[in-house]
Amino acid sequence: MLYIAPPKNRENKFYTHLLMAIRRLSVQEYIDGILAGDRVVLSRAITLVESRLEADRLAANQVLHAILPHTGRAKRIGITGVPGVGKSTFIESFGSYITQQKGLKLAVLAIDPSSQRTKGSIMGDKTRMESLSHDPKAYIRPSPSGDSLGGITRKTRETMLLCEAAGFDIILIETVGVGQSETAVRSMTDFFLLLMLAGAGDNLQGMKRGIMEMADALTITKADGSNVQKALNAKIEYENAIHLFPLPPSGWATPVSTCSSMTQEGIPELWQLTEKYFDFATQKGWLQKQRQEQNKEWLHETIKQTLLDRFYENPTIKQALAVCENAVENGQQDAVSAAYELLNKF
Ligand SMILES: Nc1nc2c(ncn2[C@@H]2O[C@H](COP(=O)(O)OP(=O)(O)OP(=O)(O)O)[C@@H](O)[C@H]2O)c(=O)[nH]1
Ligand SMILES: [Mg+2]
C-alpha cells in the first residue's frame, strides 16, 4: 500500500498531478482539464481515446462530444516524405519558428517509426526535437506506430481534436511516407506539405504521382552546404512536373521551394507560404468545404473501425474464429465460406 503524505500546501501542482496520475479521472475532470489547457490531463485523455477497452471508449466518446464545440480553430498541417527526408528535423526547425517568432502554441503529433522496431521507444524523435521538447509553447505527442496505416494510429484525428480544445493554435502531424498513411493524414489536415530529397536517384524518386497531387506545397530539404545547387535543380524539376498536373479542386497551385532545417534557410518563407494558403483557402470557402468532407469521411471511418472492433472482440466470434482458423489452415474449410459463417454468427 502506497501512502503519499499530502504537502502542507494542498495547491501544490506536483501533488495534484501525482494524485491525478494514480487515480481514474471522471469524464468531467477530463473535460475541465483539457479546456483549461492542462497538459497532464490532455496526455491522459489521449491515452483514454487510444484505449480499446469498452469502458474507456464510452468515457472517451463523452469527452469528445463535450470538447467538440471547442475545436476547429487550429490550423491543421500534415507533413510527409520518405523515411530520412528530414521530417522530424524540419518540425523542430519550423515548429520553433512558429512558437518563438510567431508566439503560437504548437502541438506535434509525431508517429515514431522506430517504435515499431523497438516496441515503444519514443525517445528517438524527442531527441531530434530537442528544443521543441523543452519549449513551453510546444506539446509533442509521439505515438507508437504499431497500429494500422504505416504509422497513423487509429486515433490521430481524435487526438488532434483534444489538442485543439486544449488551446493549441497549430497542429503538425508527421507521417512516414509509406502506404496509406498519407491519405489518412491528408484526410484530417487543411494543409499538406511534402518533403523531398534532391538528387536521390531517378527524377521523381519513385514517388507516386498521387502523393505529389495530394500536396499543397512541396519543399526540397537539406538545401545546405554542397547540396544547395542540387536542391535548386530539383526544385525546377519538380516545378516542371507539377506544372503538368491539373489544378486541384481548391484552385491553389502547388508551390515548390527549398529549405534547410540546419541553417533555417527557407523556413520563414515556408511559414509565410502556409499563412498565404490559409488566407486563400478561407477566402475561397475551400477550408470549410474540405473540413465538411473530412467529417463525412470520419463518420465512415468510425463506423468501419467500430464494426471491426466489435466483431473481433465478440466472445462468440473469438471462439468460433479460432475453430475456423484451424479448419482453414488444415484445408477442411475454404476461407470464404469460413468468413461468411463467422459474419452470419455476428
Ligand atoms: N544537412 C542537413 N541534414 C539534415 C537536414 N534535416 C535533416 N537532416 C538529417 O537527415 C537525417 C534524417 O532526419 P530526420 O529528421 O530524422 O528524418 P525523418 O524524415 O524524420 O526520418 P523518419 O522519421 O525515419 O522517417 C538526420 O541525420 C538529420 O540530421 C537538413 O536540413 N540539412
Ligand atoms: Mg521522423
With strands numbered from the N-terminus, the spatial order across the biggest sheet is: 3-2-4-1-5-6-7
Structural class: alpha/beta
- Number of separate domains: 3
Beta-strand residue fraction: 5-15%
Structural write-up:
Keywords: Kinase, Transferase. GO terms for molecular function: GTP binding; GTPase activity; kinase activity. With 346 residues, the protein is of the alpha/beta class. The model is unreliable at 114-122 (pLDDT under 50). The chain has three domains: 13-68, Single alpha-helices involved in coiled-coils or other helix-helix interfaces (Up-down Bundle); 72-284, P-loop containing nucleotide triphosphate hydrolases (Rossmann fold, 3-Layer(aba) Sandwich), CATH 3.40.50.300; 293-345, Orthogonal Bundle (Helix Hairpins), CATH 1.10.287. The two termini are 44 Å apart. Helix 2 packs across helix 3 and helix 5 (87-101) packs across helix 13. It has helices at residues 13-22, 27-35, 39-50, 54-67, 87-101, 114-118, 123-128, 130-133, 156-165, 181-186, 209-214, 228-243, 267-283, 286-313, 315-329, 335-345, and strands spanning 75-81, 106-112, 138-144, 170-176, 191-196, 217-220, 256-258. The structure holds guanosine-5'-triphosphate (GTP) and magnesium ion. Guanosine-5'-triphosphate binds next to helix 5.
